Amino acid sequence: MNIDQEKLRFLVSEVRKVLEQEKATWRPLDASGKPGGVILLRTDIPTFIVPDLHGRQEFLPDLLSYVYQGRKVQSLLEQKQAQVVCVGDGMHGELRAAARWRVAYEEYQNDFVDCPAMTEEMEENFQTMAKIMELKIKYPQYFHFLKGNHENIFDENSNGNHSFAKFAAEGMMTRAFVEKFLGKDFLSIYGSFEKELPLLARGRDFVISHARPRQVYSLQNIINHRQYPEVVEGLTWTRDNLAETGAVKRMLEIVLGTGLGEKYWFAGHCPISGLYNFVERESLIQIHNPKYRPFVIVDPTFPFNPEKHILLVPKRRA
């Protein structure tokens, strides 16, 4: 596998420490004293929201090179003048990788004796995750990666997680590949990193989670998500047809309070056909389109307009 395994192990170890030591000022502690499931974003700087990544390793580097009001996003992060929130799902290529997954499944059935397709998939996944970990280590208060349903390297059916299979048996295949080529010790460390990820980010007048909430949850239960697997499941696995009507609207009031003007809930998970899907009755904006690379800018200095502030990430200039 064409990836620096020593560096990857170092990053996983370091990012886990960062997550375990996040300050209560931006990540309230749960009942056991650990950083909880909610991120409190700064309300006086722009927020860049990133949809499901699914192994698209150039997405974040291209976003960091995006110039906003005369400065690159990378520079804004360094100067603590912007924050980036990813909605999760770092691994497992989607539509672009469907044919590769089918080939990789045959490799899996042969115990990965010869596995160029699966190796290519996992290289993309870990390159993507390495960038995420580097950014979290460097900018702990200003870069956040929320847990999605694909953050389940154990492929477990517990703790709010479910085994994943779409084009093949992606969850099972990923676990088997990691165990064989990186070892059970790495699998364990990586899995513990996933367990430390938050579920929700709160801005001034917006909320971000991987999936729309399945039902209404209290803020305390989200903070104490380790005790409530149904909260983990409900904020990472919910499809539109399973969501309780009105849950997003009520959750916006619970998380943000009443009395504000327009409020929005941003989520990925459910594939859409355009740059975004606005469910007006819920104040829900969905941004996961595996064919495109949309991102959202929420700037406190002007009202949010999805037609103006949901854009495509341009490729970096050579």
Automatic annotation (TrEMBL):
Span of domain Serine/threonine specific protein phosphatases: 146-151
- Output the superkingdom of the source species: Bacteria
Q: GO MF annotations for this entry?
A: hydrolase activity
Listed Pfam families = Metallophos
Q: What protein name does the entry list?
A: Serine/threonine specific protein phosphatases domain-containing protein
Organism this protein belongs to = SAR324 cluster bacterium
